[in-house]
Amino acid sequence: MSEFDIKARGWDNDQRHVDRAMTIAAGMKKHIPLKSGMKALEYGSGTGLLSFALKDVFSEIVLMDNSQEMIRVCEEKSAYYKTPHIRPVWFDLEHKDYPEKFDIIYSLMVLHHVTDVDTLLNRFSGMLNPNGIIVISDLYEEDGSFHDSDNVHKGFDPDKLLDVLEGKGFNRGMYTHCYNVKRPNGREYPVFLLWAEMRT
User: Fold this and answer.
1) Average pLDDT, stretch 132-151?
2) DSSP label at residue 90
3) pLDDT tens per residue across span 43-54
4) Is the distance from CB of 138 to CB of 191 less than 8 angstroms?
């Protein structure tokens, strides 16, 4: 079992996780032109907190995660909330292509866990329809104290991330500070919300 498999059942009991997802959902509604007919993918969905906060926005939402236990929780929540338009999928997009196309792909606090960010962003660009939107919410660059691990990225410079996305077929996007993660060590770590649209 992975770390996230172990944490899946108790994930939604942490109010910080809930507050973060609600804040990012509000930020997406404020800054990004979301439309009801959009088909959406949340990559690294975990228990789907962000997508369930957006469940009335999109016509279809695929929740994708490589943690089987997280996806099991998503399936139970979808049944409980009677949301047949939310479809949990257990899939490892870091190592395999996925055949569907989407109008919007978003992730929350996921990218810093991804080993090969460049390959994943290439997959995202290939999975978006014309004028499709990518939305990334993650840590600004930090000193490595957020995680006690060498297997994660120490956040990102959003301007450099926008440069990378431009090279992958996106128009120049935008970003804003949207949240501060408060850690038990007493420190706060800022989180950005970034979005860009595919060039046609």
Assistant:
1) 88
2) E
3) 999 999 999 999
4) yes
CA distances from 67 to 108, 148, 167 (A): 15, 21, 30
Q: Into how many domains does the chain fold?
A: 1
Q: 89 burial class (0-12, 13-18, 19+ CB within 10 angstroms)?
A: middle
Handedness of CA 195, 92, 110, 118 (dihedral sign): negative
CATH code of the domain containing 185: 3.40.50.150
CA–CA gap between residue 48 and residue 53 (Å, rounded): 8
What is the token pair recorded at 122? Answer: 């290439």
Residue from 43, 42, 69 nearest 57 by CA: 42
Range of the domain at 95: 3-197
